From TrEMBL, chain A:
Belongs to the ATPase C chain family. GO terms for molecular function: lipid binding; proton-transporting ATP synthase activity, rotational mechanism. InterPro entries: ATP_synth_F0_csu (IPR000454), ATP_synth_F0_csu_sf (IPR038662), ATPase_proteolipid_c-like_dom (IPR002379), F/V-ATP_Csub_sf (IPR035921). The keyword Cell inner membrane does not apply. NCBIfam families: PRK07558.1 (NF005733). The chain crosses the membrane at residues 6-28, 49-73. It is a multi-pass membrane protein. The keyword Ion transport applies. Residues 8-70 form the V-ATPase proteolipid subunit C-like domain. Its main location: membrane. Keywords: ATP synthesis, Cell membrane, CF(0), Hydrogen ion transport, Ion transport, Lipid-binding, Membrane, Transmembrane, Transmembrane helix, Transport. HAMAP family: ATP_synth_c_bact (MF_01396). This is ATP synthase subunit c.
From TrEMBL, chain B:
One of its GO terms (cellular component) is endomembrane system. It comes from Shimia abyssi. InterPro entries: ATP_synth_b/b'su_bac/chlpt (IPR002146), ATP_synthase_B_chain (IPR050059). Its main location: membrane. HAMAP family: ATP_synth_b_bprime. The chain crosses the membrane at residues 28-47. F(1)F(0) ATP synthase produces ATP from ADP in the presence of a proton or sodium gradient. F-type ATPases consist of two structural domains, F(1) containing the extramembraneous catalytic core and F(0) containing the membrane proton channel, linked together by a central stalk and a peripheral stalk. During catalysis, ATP synthesis in the catalytic domain of F(1) is coupled via a rotary mechanism of the central stalk subunits to proton translocation. Component of the F(0) channel, it forms part of the peripheral stalk, linking F(1) to F(0). The b'-subunit is a diverged and duplicated form of b found in plants and photosynthetic bacteria. This is ATP synthase subunit b. It comes from the Bacteria. It is a single-pass membrane protein. PANTHER family: ATP SYNTHASE SUBUNIT B (PTHR33445:SF1), ATP SYNTHASE SUBUNIT B', CHLOROPLASTIC (PTHR33445). It is found in: Cell membrane; Endomembrane system.
From TrEMBL, chain C:
The keyword Ribonucleoprotein does not apply. NCBIfam families: ATP_synt_6_or_A, PRK05815.2-4. This is ATP synthase subunit a. The keyword Cell membrane applies. The chain crosses the membrane at residues 40-58, 95-119, 125-145, 152-178, 198-219, 226-245. It comes from Shimia abyssi. Pfam families: ATP-synt_A.
């Protein structure tokens, strides 16, 4: 029973991955919108883009990690 | 709880191998060794070498650009020299033309003067000759007139002194 | 997992997505003491060999007009050098070999881990936590050595209203200490997630009807993983540069 609850928890934690996907899409989409408005400034901001994506994705990875922990380590 | 599944491979591995802290020491040991190896290879051999190559390339490019600039400056200089020579030659040619023109003009002038003088001399001679002829003619006319007048006077029955007749004729001719 | 897997195994589906991360002694035996050469050791050593091949053997001709292998080495050099210079500033260039080491290790460990049946050292928290702690300690020590107590100004946001500053300071301190955690988990998590997902798709291939879809999905994930491998190395490096900039110029 307890193990099955952990699996439910893992599934719930996996929702976080979807939320992180929204976040990453938001970052990339806004970058693209800005880059199309001012293409000359786009190249200088790719580093910021990747940092933003990395931060957004890290939180998704955290939820993935929680899911893994519930699946395998609890 | 995953022991049964993994029993075949790892007798006591937990679900996530990452959380098996018993082998962390091993991994950290080898990782530190790896990082030190990479660090020494990079900082002692690879990075100075690449930096040197890049600096050398930069130097070569800079030199080549400088050489190209120099050649360009030389070309500009040569063009300027060429233009200057051309202008000089043109000026020289113009000078020669002007000189030749002046010379010819001078020669022409002297020739004209000489011709003028000759013409003037000849004209004066001719005038003199004409004047002589005219004077001769006048003398002749006077003689003829005198003779004619004497004859006329004689024919009319008068006796006239030659001197008087001459005087009268002269007066008449002057009048 | 255990009961589920057992149930699945009876139905013909076997999911062992985490088995690829098990550390095994390289020359047999069961016990892993601190010096035992393991598969992790092997793939770290291969990463070293790859770095040497690319950065030392590739550039041995020192040509003015580079050969292909040499220009790849120069490309990697210029890429990281420019990153350090642009993000962390000119005075961070003396940390360049250190950052280059991190970048080269992560990028080669990631890429070598993409070879089928291989092992990825960077999927283990033991590895990434050490990498992240190295960065964290370096940045903290450099910050205090360079700026002394002024380094604490990093946490005191002088541009904010005075009333907010203590709260912001607490948040800043927390975020500062969370840095190594997120730094390490981001790298290991990304790599592990990709490999585990590929393994799960591979598990579905046991069903004949699904297997073509599975193969296509594995191919697509593999392409994504190639991208992620590089981007995670890039992100790890650039965040190191960002942290280093904070240490060298802590003014907010």
């Amino acid at each position: 029973m307890e193990g099955q609850l952990a699996h439910i928890g893992a599934g719930l934690a996996a929702i976080g991955s979807g939320a992180a996907a929204i976040g990453v899409g938001n970052v990339a989409g806004n970058y693209l919108a800005g880059a199309l408005r001012n293409p000359s400034a786009a190249a200088s901001q790719t580093a910021t883009l990747f940092i933003g994506i990395a931060f957004a994705e890290a939180l998704g990875i955290f939820s993935f990690l929680v899911a893994l922990l519930l699946m395998f380590a609890v | 709880m995953a022991t049964e599944t993994h029993a075949a491979e790892a007798a006591s591995a937990p679900g996530m191998p990452q959380l098996d802290f018993s082998n962390w020491g091993n991994q950290i040991f080898w990782l530190v060794l790896t990082l030190l190896a990479i660090y020494f290879v990079l900082s002692r051999i690879a990075l100075p070498r690449i930096a040197a190559v890049l600096a050398e390339r930069q130097g070569t490019i800079t030199n080549d650009i400088a050489a190209a600039e120099e050649l360009k400056a030389k070309a500009v200089e040569a063009e300027e020299a060429y233009n200057k020579a051309l202008a000089d030659a043109r000026a020289e040619a113009q000078r020669i033309v002007a000189e030749a023109k002046a010379e010819i003009q001078a020669e022409l002038d002297t020739a004209t003067d000489k011709a003028d003088a000759e013409i003037a001399a000849k004209a004066a001679e001719s005038e003199k000759a004409i004047a002589e002829i005219r004077a001769g003619a006048l003398e002749g006319i006077k003689d003829v007139a005198n003779a004619t007048a004497v004859e006329l006077v004689a024919a009319l029955g008068g006796a006239a002194e030659d001197a008087d007749v001459t005087e009268a004729v002269d007066a008449r001719m002057k009048g | 997992m255990a009961s589920e897997a057992h149930g699945a195994e009876e139905g013909g589906l076997v999911f062992h997505p985490m088995d690829q991360f098990i550390i095994k002694p390289l020359f047999g035996g069961d016990t892993i003491s601190w010096y035992t050469p393991t598969n992790a050791t092997l793939w770290m050593a291969l990463a070293v060999v790859a770095v040497i091949a690319m950065m030392v053997i590739g550039t041995r001709s020192r040509a003015i007009v580079p050969s292909r292998s040499q220009s790849i080495g120069e490309l990697a050099y210029g890429f990281v050098y420019k990153m350090v210079e642009d993000v962390a500033g000119k005075d961070a260039v003396k940390f360049f070999p250190y950052i280059m080491t991190l970048f080269m290790f992560i990028v080669f460990a990631n890429f070598l881990g993409l070879i089928p049946m291989s092992f990825t050292p960077t999927s283990h928290f033991a590895v990434t936590v050490v990498l992240a702690m190295l960065v964290f300690l370096t940045v903290t020590i450099v910050g205090f050595v360079k700026n002394g107590a002024a380094f604490l100004g990093l946490f005191w946001v002088s541009s904010a209203p005075l009333a907010l500053r203590p709260i912001l300071a607490i948040i800043e301190v927390i975020s500062y200490f969370v840095r190594p955690v997120s730094h390490s988990i981001r790298l290991a998590g990304n790599v592990m997630a990709g490999h585990a997902v590929i393994k799960v798709f591979a598990g579905f291939a046991a069903i004949a009807v699904v297997s073509p879809v599975s193969v296509v999905a594995i191919t697509a994930m593999y392409g994504l993983e190639v991208l992620v491998s590089f981007i995670q190395a890039y992100v790890f490096t650039i965040l190191t540069c960002v942290y280093l900039k904070d240490a060298l110029h802590p003014s907010h």
